[in-house]
């Protein structure tokens, strides 16, 4: 489906979030919450591949233009509250989908309010990436975004030198990663600061967890997925063949088809 509107929503404290809406803007549908190193623009190809819902609302979380700043009071709870503002605006949301850090936010939101369906792709939780926090903090203090991108990709995602250099060789892609890396330290610190609840998605009628086949049982994403799985007792687990953490970039149509198949009967 095609994008129809972009909307700004105040979340208080001097910040705001924007959402990109695809399809019928006033029809309840799917809300998408991207994770770290990602924004609403990066999910456009998945959004256009979705047709099981009359609308798809993609959140541009705070810290990403044109959304507002993280602010000094930023926390994981602030992300959950931001999502609550969006869900209040788009009443009757049929399903909530989150990727990575966005998956954690979605699962926690379903502890605070009833939701029909929550879908999460490789959600992460504490202590995910905690070993990289000192280096990320040092890079942020000097605004060294090249170093931040390298830390995220090498120390957390586990890419080797050749893979990182291949990313750097694409100047446009590297520039985009530098921009998206600016909230990385604050987001990872927030993720690791809040103790996770023993149960997630308590008020969701249905929960679907997705993992890429390449990450199944493998650190860091597969092992964090397993930690989440133990806290979502009623979830169905689905595997996306041939994919890893970046399926929304590397296989957006396949991910879209999987999500379409998970749509509950309306």
From TrEMBL:
Show where the AB hydrolase-1 domain sits.
30-254
Which classification does the entry list for the species?
Bacteria, Bacillati, Actinomycetota, Actinomycetes, Kitasatosporales
Q: What is this protein called?
A: Alpha/beta hydrolase
Can you provide one Gene Ontology molecular function annotated for this UniProt record?
hydrolase activity
| Keywords associated with the record | Hydrolase
UniProt superkingdom: Bacteria
Record-linked SUPFAM superfamilies? alpha/beta-Hydrolases
Q: Does the keyword Ribonucleoprotein apply?
A: no
Q: Which Pfam families match?
A: Abhydrolase_6 (PF12697)
Q: Does the keyword Hydrolase apply?
A: yes
Q: What InterPro entries does this protein's entry cite? A: AB_hydrolase_1, AB_hydrolase_fold
